[in-house]
């Protein structure tokens, strides 16, 4: 096994769901989707977010989009106008998710993505 | 594909009240369009509009919408573009009157303006409760009595069929109250294609077309993970769906605009604010997001097909807002060296001084913007910023206590570590915290009504 940053094999978007947020993770190819289906468990996601997520994490699968949808319960400090947080709507949780490190098989090479790769050329990690 | 078939081109030019004021203008000016949809309402918006109507019975709707129509009405008429917007808020009739005035000013006789009402049940709550509707919280099942005395607004997410009916009565502009966001796109499809109330796959397709465009440019490059691939941020194209009678559609944008429409940008928007993808419940149907197939058909063109839907439920969702308490948030800028350590000293001083003054709050917040405000423990350890914005806040049932908190920030400039600044804009004042109470109501108890008025 070796490790890769999640952003090398998937992209993501997040938004609010009541007092929680959702993070949709979309794999860049079918093999990445299979790897993430097994590896990206609700438990690992909850551990990654630490104090940000106070409630449980749920996962729903969308194989047609190579997508995994996570609901992070009680992650907004109240949600909507009730929250004091800068990110009261979980807009940044997708980018937080992509900071994860994923274990992948040694023979797996991430696909070439878009016009310039899965990470901005010269961009910070 | 036969040559006589022409897809309907439906655009969204406003993802929320406060979105770009120029986007809808660019949409109607820069290319062909059949319908322009505009979404103005969020949960908290309804309570603000109720408050405005209480102060002035002629208010309570999205006034920006009337200003927009004033600017684009000549183009709408010249190009035959019709408009569907939930700009009515809690006073769609007043919005229609304002639009009629604008039309008269411009000599637009023959213009037909429709309204859909019946979603606002604020004045019916006691009657409905007495008739047996529990209005228990969908989140945690708590009884409605917990918040009844503090309710500020109550609106039903009504179906798309009344909006379609207004279009069938040849309305050029349809203004509704709390219709669903995707329903703004579905209404014209029902009206034009005659989709039936039990055509679940078609209704789901129209709903998902609406879901993709309801947040404006978020499907055309906005918020995209690989943002460095997006060009033309200063002229980002807002989305257009070209929907066929069979429910298949293409997501695109006007030629020559900035942004990006790919399987990846559309895919990200599909999972935005998603709950259970197998059951996306709307008043019109239950859409299955696991049935969607995306395919890049050409540059900035993504074809969507395969959508399945199921029968609608027998309840409508109700959005109730209530006064939950008071809050205030303030900030100080702390320069380096040792910005993080000094910001921590400042925060501890604020909370310690308030405690000595006898102030204990239901909820407090300490964030260091530049260190951990967004990503908490994921960035806290490695961050070493040259300066930090210390952001602190409180929430409490007592307005006085919240105002007292606001007085504790400015003193830090002279009573804390060196290099503390950025205290501008006066003391943070207590503002209302609006609670949100989602619940259900049987559909048979809600009767939307449609009015279409012709300008003379």
Describe the overall structure:
The complex is a heterodimer of chains A (125) and B (456). With 125 residues, chain A is an alpha+beta fold. Chain A has a domain of 83 residues. Helix content of chain A is 19%, strand content 29%. Chain A contains 3 helices and 6 strands; from the N terminus they run E-E-E-H-H-E-E-H-E. Chain A has a 4-stranded antiparallel sheet with strand order 2-3-5-4. In chain A, strands 1-6 form a two-stranded antiparallel sheet. Chain A is globular and about 45 Å long. Chain A starts with a strand and ends in a 21-residue tail after the last strand. The model of chain A has no long low-confidence stretch (mean pLDDT 93). Chain B has 2 domains: 268 residues, no CATH class; 117 residues, Alpha-Beta Plaits (2-Layer Sandwich), CATH 3.30.70. The model of chain B has no long low-confidence stretch (mean pLDDT 95). The longest helix of chain B has 18 residues. Chain B is α+β, with helices and mostly antiparallel strands and 456 residues long. In chain B, strands 11-12-8-7-1-2-3-6-4-19 form a 10-stranded mixed sheet, sandwiched between helices. In chain B, strands 5, 14, 15, 16, 17 and 18 form a 6-stranded antiparallel sheet that branches. Chain B has a 3-stranded antiparallel sheet with strand order 9-10-13, covered by helices on one side. Chain B is built from 13 helices and 19 strands. Helices cover 29% and strands 25% of the residues of chain B. In chain B, a hairpin with a 5-residue loop joins strand 7 and strand 8. In chain B, helix 3 packs across helix 4, helix 6 packs across helix 7 and helix 7 packs across helix 8. Chains A and B meet through strand 2, strand 3, strand 4, strand 5 and helix 3 of A and helix 9, strand 14, strand 15, strand 16 and strand 18 of B.
